[in-house]
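request received
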Amino acid sequence: MASLSSKRVYRTVALGAITALAVIAIAPFFMDIYTTNILIRAFYLAALVMTVDILWGYTGILTFGQSAFFGIGAYACALVFTHYGFGPLWAIGALAIGILAALAVAAIVGWLAFYHGASPLYASIITLALPIVLVQLIFAGGRWTGSSSGLSAFPTYYWSTETWFWIAGAYLVLVTSLGFLLVRSDFGRILVAIRENEERAAYLGIPISRIKTGLMMASGAVGAAAGFGYAAFTNVVAPELGDFLLGTELLIWTALGGRGTLIGPVLGAIGIDVTASYLSGTLPFLWKLLTGIAFVVVIVLLPRGLAPILGQAIGFVIPPLRRKPPQSAELVPADWRPIAASFDAPPLKIDELICQYGSLRVLTGVNATVKGGELLSIVGPNGAGKTTLMRCVSDGSERTAGRVYVQGVEIGRGAPQSIVALGVGRSFQNTNLFDTLTVAECLMLARYGVDGAPMFARRAEIRMPEPALDIMRATGLDKVLATETGSLSHGMKRGLELAMVLATEPSVLLLDEPTAGLTKAERTAIGHTLKRLTDEYGLAVVLIEHDLDFVREISSRIVVLHQGSVLMEGTVEEVVNSELVRAVYSGEQVEAVA
Amino acid sequence: MSGPILSLDEVSSGYGAATVLHGVSLSLRAGEIVAVLGKNGMGKTTLLKTIMGFVKAAAGSVLLDGAPITGRSPHAIVRQGVAYAPQDYTIFQDLTVEENLRLGVLADDIYRGRVDMLGDVFPRMLERLKQRAGTLSGGEQKMLLMSRAIIARPRIMLVDEISEGLQPTMIERMAEVLRRTRSEHGTAVLLVEQHLSFALSVADRYAVLKLGEIVDEGVAAEGAAKVAEHLKV
Amino acid sequence: MSILVLDIVTTAAILFAVASGLMIILGVMKLINFAHGAFLTVGGYTAFLTTEAGITPWLSAPLAAIFGFLAGIVIERLVVRPLYSRPLDAILATWGLGIVIGQVITLTFGREVQFAASPMSGTFDFGAIDYSAYRIVVTLIAIAIGIALTALFYGTRFGLQARAVIMNETLARGLGIDSGRVRTLTFGLGAGLACAAGALITPLLSVDPNMGLPWLVNSFMLVLVSGVSIPSLALASLILGGAQVAVSTYISPIIGGLTIVVLAAFILRINPRGLGLG
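response:
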């Protein structure tokens, strides 16, 4: 079911790879041996830089530690060949050991750095600690690892430089092609979504920690294989191959080349490493000084690096190379069966919920139950704790005390994505979505929990439940599937937000002011859809809303929240006509009756 | 009579692509209290933030003493004699009452010269100077918020929903304080409110903000019925 | 045994002095200053130059502090200020700045290891043991730095403004605090402290263009574990520095060099708030 745009990517990659391989095949015959040697090193480092770009440029994980995986692969080669044996089987074994060790280390890094709630800074610090620890362990290895002087003159294949050049070149082309397919795939869009708005991605049920750890492991394997190749070629390993300085250099190359472009960092790495090799003979420190200055200037003034500028220049000269507008996937109806009412456990039960920030008590023991097919509206003045209530229901780490049950299951301290997996969908008050993703990509993202996302392809069709399609049509979103969400109107953003939540096929829907700032017609359409969700699909809906007219039209029950506790609960008529509610809304002090 | 000390001329502003205020014009004369009324989400807070320079006006201009201040940073605007009492309990919870008050003025010796004047309006604040602000009750925190604005002795005070969550007696107290500040120091006040009776009882004039536009303006004493209609739940 | 205690206390004091500049920048500016290591190096070379010029070594730390403060103010304006809304980029830019400083030093002074004179040599006599007098002096200076920082942040108007900016920058600006100025001064102060610390530790070690690097990483870890609080930083320095000394003494100096990094990473994994005392 590969889409047209998927085929176009395949064609581009195949064409690029064949061209690159052809250049690599004939290049050694036109270069001196010194240049060839330098390029072999540059190719392996470029493969490593590519993983940095996927992690940092695409997914937003600032990593200082990718050099460690290069070092692990290199030392696996050197240690096996020096101490244990040499031959085709030994070589394969050493490569396997290097890759497995890298996978294991990456898994530990992932466990340490990417747990739910970890700050991006903490993750960076862990990746910073990684090469430092590795190098110290190499120092501590004494004669076995060669300590600070490393290992050299171990047996290896005495192939010609051309052969090594071809191996390195082919490896780089292979991993870059795979990387390119990955970032252009549906899965690649998910990486961008994590970079742009990790919290929102988690609330769509995307398993952030698992994806980041998996990505780190894959990057580690690619880096270890590159390190292995480099060590086998040079016959020398030293702690510098895995140290923190190389790790930061990778970042510099990525930044200068243009993060998030893949080809920019790869070419940047090759260009800078080769130039450095030539210049470091004559102007060693001056060269590093100039790179440092260029790096600071690029970070401050050109955060996207040099690639986009060059890309524009090339696109200007050769128009066909200009990026064509992405072709969008089409929406098809998904089969979302209405939820049968369950009698033993209500879809949502909130029991003595307390939430406290420091000395400030925002919720002071809230109780509520929402049945299937019911729409419960929560009203109350600003600061009553409405949004906090939503947050406590959808993220297990937020509440101070009390219990929340979804379909009879206690949510514990679960991260948002695990609560989404229980069937909770939450929409947010503010409408910042994933600005650089298109409407269709956002919807694809929301379907990750149900349909997954292919790693190396783009789907031609996105399955959407009927009510989500209704929203899309009512807000005109179905006509702008290929538009980036950053440029949508306010009403469309609200509509998309709701469509995305529905795309996760929730059984409990939490909506935080879904109609704020919408026109009358849009509000009516959303009200209609909500009614349908409760009546036909049996959803339990919790709605925060200020517009009492809207609340009156669609609610089954209303809860009035005031200063962190339930002031009143009742049918629409009881609440709307109550003097108490008028008093609360006009800002008077009232005593809780409950 | 001289011209307004603060005026907004066809100001539009918002956050990113979302425009919240659509061509709002409003003026405040020296010693005048003007109430801007409206329900939640109508742009009241954005209005004050735009005056303060926290939100950049996309169109139109904000004039202080007839000179445009659009694009200036908040601290520069404060230095021109504007005090801002933001919504909610916006005090430094982890600082003491005294430290909060010191931050209300531009230098510590000004603070020492003025702290006693609080004895007239909020004597309780003077008793609690060394207490951590976060341990005050909700009403006391609002008093502190107001004290911090008063001690600055501004020419213009921007007050965002001071009545919210307060008991009727406390609301009456706040109204009293605003009237006194005006009569004693000639402070002009721009009051943003949902609480109709409180706002109209202290204000000279009112304006109703609805979906980012001013839909009605008038003299406070005559506005009650009309405003109630606009704010109807 | 008592040598171990003295080692732990003096090591903790040195770590505290070295990390304090990083901490105040992190606290006020929410910025991890990767040029911190380079600032330490600059301080080291200030001490070296002071020795070369024949000035009393007691002046090297104050001179380094003044130089660092002025340089910090210029750097904040040029490099850091445009990046407030991009914190991860700010890390990278300060790292690039560190490279530039390191290379300028290399071009000026060469790569070789050099030495600076110590303000005092000899030992203090603690009954049964003699202990390096300068390490004791550095410990006292570190304690003085801790007291001075506490006085600055809790006893002056600048400190009050800085704390207000830490707690709620928007509100602080709404009260007329020029948060940009607070940030500039803080960066200058942090850079000045880092340079002074570099000058202080140099007589115990040696100077070379990369001397700041190992300290940089340990400082990060300490600051992240302690959060923004002067007593917490002292506590973290004592616990992690103590562990480092113990491991170096009883197991291996190489593994000892890893102690702070590894321990800190695990402490933060178990409790993301670290050892924060508030």
